[in-house]
Task: structure prediction
Amino acid sequence: FWSTEESDMLELAVREVGEGKWAAISRRLAGLGVTRDPNQCRHRWNKVLRPNLKKGCWDDGGPNAKIANGF
Result:
């Protein structure tokens, strides 16, 4: 479980270090007292925090439209 403060620190670290440099971001967080490995940082960013992340329900044209309609 990530706290709000940890998520905020991760966002700041990504802005400062650069997206994709997960080992360096993990080390930056460790210096702030947050123990997260690079994979945890990458997952949190890509699945929860990334600014252009699309959240919500699939629209009718999504790849699961046939499944949702019983086909």
